[in-house]
Amino acid sequence: MYSTRQRSHHASLVKLKDAFTDRQNHIEYIKKVLKTKADRPRAIYIHIPYCVKLCSFCNLNRVKLDSSVEDYHKLIIRQIKSIADYEYIQSKEFESVYFGGGTPTVLSAKQIEAILKTMHDLLPISRDAEISVETSISELTEEKLDVMKEMGVNRFSIGVQTFVDRGRRQLGRRGSGYDAIKKIQKVIDKGFKNTNIDLIYNYPGQTKEELYFDLKIIKELDIAGISYYSLILHEGSMLSKLIKEGKIAEPPGIEEEKIFFDIIYEELLDSGFDVLEITKLVKKNRDKYQYIQVKNRAGDCLAFGNGAGGRLKNYLYYNQPTISKILYKILPVSPMGKVITNNYNVVDKMIGQVQFGYISFNQLDAETNEKMYQYCKDFIDRLLENGLIKKDGNKYKLTKDGIFWGNNICSDFTERLINFFEKYD
Predict the structure, then answer these.
(1) Pair (348, 263) in one structural domain
(2) How many domains does the chain have?
(3) 152: left (phi over 0), alpha (psi -120 to 50) or beta
(4) How many CA atoms lie within 13 A of 317 on its CB side?
(5) Which of 27, 82, 266, 357 has its CA 20 to 30 A from that of 309?
(6) Of 258, 279, 294, the domain-final residue
(7) pTM of this prediction?
(8) Are residues 173 and 108 in the same domain?
């Protein structure tokens, strides 16, 4: 059914980005929302766009460390204070806090402590909230670990990518695989049982033996979960340039990529892992990944920091770094945004379900759900015929092959659902 694999959910987001825009004045809309009570699941996202070293494969919203990081925590704190007192913010607890980047742990222990203290003092954080921090092994100092433990951090996502030294050098990771193993073990021994790693596979020259080595370490360290990605060659990345110049070989093709995927999937599911998301395997009862649970249910995401994207009710916004402080005085949240209709929420939730590994037509009234199913039936039938989904009660569950092609399914399903609402709404 597919010959070219989409390796991220970006294509779905692009299609959804320009759909279902409500043309009402977004400034007036969010002013009204902030005076009401919240009624949906919610998370906080804090973006730290700095890295000590830029990975060879990365094109994310980040910059190499410079002096501007020294006052960056003050920006976050100022943004928290500007919005904290509104009824919409205070009326419902946040069930997840996620520090992303970049590498959030490039901040000093005092900066991290100041942000977390302000957040706990001013925002209604649930007592059992998941507070998660992305990091690399090299920035996790003893002082930072102590501060984060004291301030309630209970989940780490560590960008290991691979424990194989050759692969680490190629991907631009700092330190050896042995260094990574020692640091992760130290983090877990310190009480952070919900420690996760990112794993990249199908990078140039990778062998099955190297992949099995990574999986062996994952099992031995008792890691709570992994986010696993086939290497994406981003235009403009250092790795992409080296491959174009012939200095590094091309990554293996789709056949080898599928073999590597199958090895990861089968090895870890046989070792006590479950599928949480199409790119996420977790140990049972260890990692709920609450942040992505909220996002995939079209929940609120209160976003802080330059480059962060968020949503409050039906207002989607982006914290553009160049926004004047004067504009923030007009509105306590970034004015760079738009209002979306409820149809956006319906599609967003249904695509979120695919990310969780299943398809279901249950978001609206029975008549509309049936009409939507009939509109999508030929697509569902093709997925069934190609063995990418199987019937599971009143929903369709992605098979192993379906998970491999999951982002393709998301993209096509998004387009089909958008067309449905354009025709029948």
Answers:
(1) no
(2) 2
(3) left
(4) 28
(5) 357
(6) 294
(7) 0.93
(8) yes
